[in-house]
């Protein structure tokens, strides 16, 4: 249970007021039943459902079992099992989390109660694969925000809670070793993790000091194969869509994850609790990408052959993302008041040392007999000359290094008092929070070209001298050979001042918040009403380029929001309850959208928009929950969101200050958008059935949702603004999860499936929906099994993506490729030694 939730319910249980509640409402008293400590799938389900049941919010929970195991490899993949959640995958691994059809940038992530910033320079979204599952005790997706919570999510707030020493009665430790095999590359990768906790008696107390620590390390090597067009289709020929260019890619990747957490809880007396929560996670991603690039002389239909320009490219880069989180705080009962205070510090960093984001070898002449035969997976057909390295020469090398830091600090104070309102048991809560956030980005770029002017001969620049083997794409380019070539050149002669300076920026965001909230119990009805205030001050600093002249950019923006909220929970009986809520939330635009830099070159311009309005949403939720037996529950929720000021990218040419421009790309606020849907969930362990069927369990959920938003842009052909309706990017009409399991004291088996229907990924052209990018539906199926060799030693095995599901993005129509990528399945086995 999270600290926020446990404080609330503990307060009702131990006070005199709690006795009054118990006397007047048996159903509330029954809702505080303790959870049995059991290992396995049912234990995870039971703890998660109990936390969901007791919460004043509508939320979904994933809980570690008694030996500290989440059901999946990382936080993102564990969350995809709960209702309303879909996951963006990167190279086959779950990464960013979408909630109720809203993209990851519209949701927030907290670790132990403090906001997690984003390592990427342009995003607010936190990549959940940065957080190893071994460091996590529970994950909660809070979908209805109470006024005491930050209002900065439209879909939901993902709360990460790390291990506490009070989660176990005494000494606990767990050590796991694992090996995984990637079917695509044939590589085997190791992983090691461990956790420890214990309680100690300090002073006059008994077991009043709890210390918990966890660590994790994994080094995974894998790969993927890709073919993409980038949407380069010409749809205007009546004979059919013609392709202008395509690219074949091979990725070889190594990802090293390391994490450590240390938590200390101290209860010097029965009225006081102090705590320290720390977490450090490091994610090192090394990638080499070999590519073939083909540009047809004339756009071609499938099956046609013609001349084409060809190039070979390599990308070789390493980047390290780090997340650091520290939370220190405490709470104390002072007479009738409970006072809680907390300081939180978190920092995210992405460091990209000097690397090669792109090097290009161009063909010396056009290639003949070039074409493709499939519009979904364009399989390149071309003359054998394309595979001869002697026919390519080095054209350019780009080098860059970058560092992004995102730092957030906050102080919050909360006061809570139990009281009677007209003889009705109530709880009054109010508080304030002050937070400051700063995103800094620094990028340096070098562009090497025109090598012949520096004394290199054609022979020295031939691809033959940079080949280090072959792949299925042909000759393999050596990144180290390229670096040796550049070692004799002066980097200062190739420094790209424009790219380097324009992409440097600092964005500061300060938010002051206060709230007032009251909870009252009227027999079987609980009502929570409150008001939250958030005032935001934004400052951006960057550089623009206006007709070749650099200009400093310094903007200020501020806005204020009053956010009322009303929640109601009605106990229909001992095991059933209704929930209803009306909430309001506000999400600031992404840092990429607020980007202060710009470039104006003749009649073309590209720029961010620091003056964007924040997204505002009014949310309605209504649902029913029924709890039954061991790890059993069924629920149904409907939701509706009315969103104002959603942000999209558009060409402003022909309007306002850009009336004479041919192109002016930026970001604008839309008027309104809506998201609505239905969530259904069912979980049950069939413990009443005769053996062996009493080990059977099922966990299933589905979410049906719709969204609608209007976008507009000036149409130069008609001289008028033209609008159309779209789905919100990232919103799938259908998501679903199904887990079938079986377990007894020794053996645990699980098969799980995760499905999401297709969704809009990006608007390609506001004026023409044929150029929109959509991600095709995906179904991932995983298998896992574990067996206790002894009471403390467990063997486990898993197979992920056993159906070899691909990632497919199409342009307008499903048969026209934008990107197609395959990863292959992954197989794992390992051992866990546990004592508790």
From TrEMBL:
Q: Which UniProt keywords apply?
A: Cell outer membrane, Membrane, Receptor, Signal, TonB box, Transmembrane, Transmembrane beta strand, Transport
Question: Residue span of the signal peptide, if any?
Answer: 1-29
> What Gene3D superfamilies has UniProt attached to this entry?
TonB-dependent receptor, beta-barrel domain, TonB-dependent receptor, plug domain
Question: How does the record say this protein sits in the membrane?
Answer: Multi-pass membrane protein
Please tell me one Gene Ontology term that the record gives under cellular component.
cell outer membrane
Its primary localisation, in coarse terms, equals membrane
List each copy of the TonB-dependent receptor plug domain by range: 57-157
| Sequence ranges assigned to domain TonB-dependent receptor-like beta-barrel in this UniProt record | 362-802
The family database entries (InterPro entries) matched by this protein are listed as:
Beta-barrel_TonB (IPR000531), Beta-barrel_TonB_sf (IPR036942), Plug_dom (IPR012910), Plug_dom_sf (IPR037066), TonB-dep_rcpt-like (IPR039426), TonB_rcpt_bac (IPR010104)
Q: Which domain of life is it from?
A: Bacteria
Keyword Transmembrane belongs to the record: yes
Q: Where in the cell is it found?
A: Cell outer membrane
Family, according to the entry, reads as follows: Belongs to the TonB-dependent receptor family.
UniProt-recorded name of the protein: TonB-dependent receptor
Which species does the entry assign this protein to? Halopseudomonas pachastrellae
